[in-house]
Amino acid sequence: MHPNIIYIHSHDTGRYIQPYGYAIPTPNLQRLAEEGVLFRKAFCGAPTCSPSRACLLTGQSAHNSGMLGLAHRGFQLADYNQHIIHTLRKAGYESYLAGVQHVADQDSKIGYDAILTRDGIHNKQVGAVVPEVENFLHQRRKGDNQTPFFLSVGFVETHREFRKASWQEDERYTIPPAPLPDTPETRRDMSEFKASARIYDQGVGNILKTLDDLGYSENTLVICTTDHGIPFPGMKCSLTDHGIGVMLIMRGPGGFTGGKVIDGMVSHLDIFPSICDILEIENPIWLQGSSLLPLIEQKQSKIHDAIYADVTFHAAYEPKRAVRTTRFKYIRRFEERKQPILPNCDDGYSKDVLLENNWGNRENDSEMLFDLVFDPNESHNLINEKAYSEDADQMRNLLFKWMIETEDPLLGNLPIQPPRGAIINSQDQLSPNAAVTIID
């Protein structure tokens, strides 16, 4: 019998949870890791909200899925039939949505068999989503429904606005993330992120307990991940590992048990083909990832020599692409503007600190090369260093080969035009909450 599949996804969490070694108590996620498999080097395909989810749910890069920007700002999939639920339906699955989905402007557009939660931002929070999930599972067990299901559970946590910190997240004893200076403001920002992570973890714990209580755990594949890095400067919407690095914990049938820790690089694009592999069904022709099962079965130590990621639109237009190997990261910006595109960074205490120190006038390089062994924080650009010229050429060639193979629209006429009706911020604005332009 095919396993049930529960896809639990948060907003903007990166890897900032307890199982990755951070001082952010998330005991339920820790339990999930100890019972399942944790991927240390998991990456999203695009470090912005809708494109990232589109990569996972269609198994292809954002520019191939059509999701070049945010769904609530007028972008959409080129073909909603490429969403994983339609492949699973052919394999006998029913599909359900609870909470955030973020790949369509309307939940009904995707094609779920049922939507468990009402629309509205407050109905996407843990406190509203979890009771609906629990009720769904109880009713299904009561009715003895044996049809396998795919359940997407999306939480707005840990997106801004964060929850207010409690005594459990004392800002005096908090350290901000690596790209940021240690100041009272950045510590306060991080303490509030930790409060949101605590709420998120409680929601995951309640779902896991319900699965246990109802006897669903043994035959349910739990996929727990997030869209991209945390919503701080230099992280979310960035192609460094601070932006594309994500938590990925899986537990259930297919060998996802035993507290394994995988060091090989993996991508969100690998989840769709992995599910096909577990179910022993044919991969749709559009999939671009690789199955995780060779890693789980310890037949291979790696499934990728390189992984790729892209950004085109977030709040504002910011076209850039990246390739990552185990040793190097190469990032290419395709925008003439050198200064930071500030509306693509969420507002908050940390952003205020950088703005007060003239962040808006700093310049970005068009090409960046980082040695991930000696510079894991990707802070020293080696692109013009003679000793690394051969490495730069190799990485540059890797990226452009991928762009050609995937028919990246950035190889055509620039700039890429947003769809009619899209909502776009000007690159000159400071905030994503500033006045926007609606494309005619």
Structure description:
This protein has 440 residues and is α/β, with parallel strands linked by helices. The chain folds into two domains: 4-296, Alkaline Phosphatase, subunit A, CATH 3.40.720; 307-438, 2-Layer Sandwich (Arylsulfatase, C-terminal domain), CATH 3.30.1120. Helices cover 27% and strands 17% of the residues. The protein contains eleven helices and 17 strands. It has helices at residues 27-35, 49-58, 62-65, 84-90, 126-142, 184-213, 241-244, 271-279, 293-296, 349-356, 389-405, and strands at residues 4-10, 37-39, 42-43, 94-99, 114-115, 149-154, 220-226, 245-246, 248-251, 260-262, 266-267, 307-313, 317-324, 328-333, 367-371, 423-424, 437-438. Helix 1 crosses helix 6. It is globular, with a radius of gyration of 21 Å.
